[in-house]
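Z., the sequence and structure:
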Amino acid sequence: MGHLDEFIVQALRNRARQGDSVAQMFKEVQRRLGGNDAHIVEILAYFRHSFCLSLNESKPIAELSRSEGRQISDEALLEELVGPEIKKHRNEWDVPVA
């Protein structure tokens, strides 16, 4: 995996600021990275970088998207597990862009 697209990073952060769910943000990253062909490692890299998440904090994204086509199996559980982690790190990622 190469360089992360800053446009995608900012789009994710904007979606979080607007109150989008983790599942909605997942679908957006997946779409931007090629739909069902998007690799989970790259999707996780975007979430980790965008929201200052540890591997452990982002792990539920991979665990709940193990289905064919990387569809989220339980959106409510994903929100319950990852949503608070994104909010916890908000002061790290929600900073003005220079």
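The two ends are 26 Å apart (CA to CA). The chain is about 65% helix and 0% strand.

Let me know what you think.
H.
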